Amino acid sequence: MMTTDSDTIRVASVDDNEILRGGIRFLMLAFDDLDWVGEAPGGEDAIRLCQEVNPDVLLVDMKMPGLDGIETTAAIKRACPEVNVLILTSFHDPDLVRRAMRAGAIGYVLKDASKEELAAAIRSACAGQTTICEEAANDLLVDPVDLAVELTDREREVLALLVKGMSNKAIAKQLHRSPFTVRHHVSQLINKLDAANRAEVAAIAVARGLVR
Fold first, then answer.
1. Residue 201 domain-assigned?
2. Where is the HTH luxR-type domain positioned along the sequence (predicted)?
C-alpha cells in the first residue's frame, strides 16, 4: 500500500480512456495537497484498487464498458464505504445525475471543469461535502410546484449542516439535540425532497438553493 503525508488527499480515478487517466494524473501534480495513488481502466479493477490503496476520493467516469459509473459507484460504496466517490464525466442527463447520487456518489463534475474547479470538488468530497456542477444542478431542478417544498426551521438547520458533510452525531452535538431527533429530521428531509439518501438530499438542496 502506498503511504503519503497525512495532510494530503489521496486521489485515484477510474476511466476506460487511458489518455484521460494520464491527463488527470498529470493535473494532480499542480496541487501540493492532492496525492495521486492509482488508476483503473474499469469498474472491477477500481474495486480492487480501492481495497489496495484506500483513496480518500475516487474519480469515476460515467460511461465505461463492463460496470458503468453508477454500478461502479454502488460497488465501491459496498466494498469500501469510506471512499468518497466523485463522478467525473461528460454527461449530465437528469436521470444519470439522480442515479449517481442514489448509488452513493458525493459529487458530480463535468470533464470540462477547470483544474481549480476539479481540485475544489475533490477537497469538498474528501470533507464529506457535496459538490454539483452547475449543469448537473440544473438537471436536478424540477417544476416550480415541486420547488415549493415546505421545511421547518429545524429541518433547514439540519439540512445546512448535512450539506457540510456532518454526521447525524455531529449535527446533534451542534444543535444540542439527540441523535434520534436528528435522524427523524433527516428522514423527513429525504421524504420531502423525494430523495433516496443523504447524498441526494444534499445534492437537491444545493441545486435548489435551499441552503446558503
1. yes
2. 144-209
